UniProtKB/TrEMBL annotation:
PANTHER family referenced in this protein's UniProt entry, alphabetically: MUREIN HYDROLASE ACTIVATOR ENVC, PEPTIDASE-RELATED
UniProt keyword annotation of Membrane present: yes
Native organism: Cellulomonas xylanilytica
Identification of the protein by name: M23ase beta-sheet core domain-containing protein
Pfam families, alphabetized: Peptidase_M23
GO MF terms held by the record: metalloendopeptidase activity
InterPro entries named in the record: Cell_wall_metabolism_enzyme, Dup_hybrid_motif, M23ase_b-sheet_dom
Record keyword Cytoplasm present: no
Transmembrane residue ranges: 26-49
Alphabetical UniProt keywords: Membrane, Transmembrane, Transmembrane helix
Amino acid sequence: MEAFAAWLVVWAKTRAVGWLARHWPKLVAAVLTVGGAAVFVAVTAATLVSGTDQDAVAANACTELGYLVDDAAYQPPPVDQKPAIPTGGPVAGFGRDDVDKIVNARAIVAAGTEAGVGRRGLIVAIAAALQESGLENVRHGDRDSLGLFQQRPSQGWGTPEQVLDPRFAALAFFGGATSPHFHLPAGKSSPAGLLDVPGWADLPVTVAAQSVQRSAFPDAYAKHEARAVLIVDALIGGSPAAAIAPPPDVGAPLRSDHSGAVTAADYRASGVDIDAFCSSSFELASDSRPGAGPGGQIIPAGAWTAPLQSRVTSAFGNRFHPVYREWRLHAGTDFHAAVGTAIASPTVGVVEGVSWSSGGGLTVTITHADGVETQHLHLSEALVKPGAEVQGGQVIALSGGSGVGTRPHYHFEVHVDGEPVDAEPFMLQRGVNLRAWS
């Protein structure tokens, strides 16, 4: 019996060692992925969940990289597209007949003060409510959406009666420890509110609101910001409300040296994609124009060219999405591009489709030789039709801000045999350096 037991132990060890020998790369990758995510969350909480001091920390790192930190992260809509701000009411930003709307706005401000989001959070919430409901506690909406923030009972925001309660709806929007959806063991709300979004106070108002609302029109909140500022300042007496509550246990700062300066290198070393953060939040000081598009010059058959001559703002690979606030594959390469910049076909091909999706917006897809397909996303206008033959260098579209994103830009994808690949080494093998204008 003892001999059998000894044999069994040896057999089990042999099997375990064999299994580890076959699967150790997967185990290491899993540990690195989980560890990287944990580091990112910790660092983001410590550095990008901001009050005034942390705003300066992130801004200094972006300044080091050559960004103008006082520029907004989006282009405000033209004046004629902004809704008129009502006047004549008892509170600035409201009309004479807006008594119910004022009551709802006061409920949001009271809830925000209770949640500790400060003036910035109140502005985000009022702008969101202006877009979603016009500050009316509406009993209808898209599918089962209800109330000031058009929250959906089917998505866990509460019962219809609860989301029609302005205080309940506002506390749910703000999230954090005062949210009715706060889960103590997890330390966050589900559905997530504003305080559950890492670095929300560093984001533009429209991006912060979108991070909670997940609207099909992510840029829609921007046009309400001016009125939201007017309303919030009127309701809090022109001075900030409760200070932004710091998150619990945010950990030690990135640097402990005497300078106290957090550099871009410190962010990168700690797992934060500071380059993507800065490019989505600020303008480069050297950017007097958004990058030159191709001139429509046709190149020889079989040759390749850059679809856009502009700086790369976000590379291919796994990243923390700036809008959805989760880790996911960024399957393409982003370029800085103003709306209306010309986009060229990188080589000869046939237009497979001109389509629209909520994430990618207006998209042109082109098939090329050898199982290669390129996709061109976030366009404002397509200049080709499905089935058309295109030449390398031919202008096929104009860049834009359609779909989900923090600002107008151009997204370029390369697929080989149906799988996305990194466009930079792919194009470099064909004699095109996409970083030549970065």
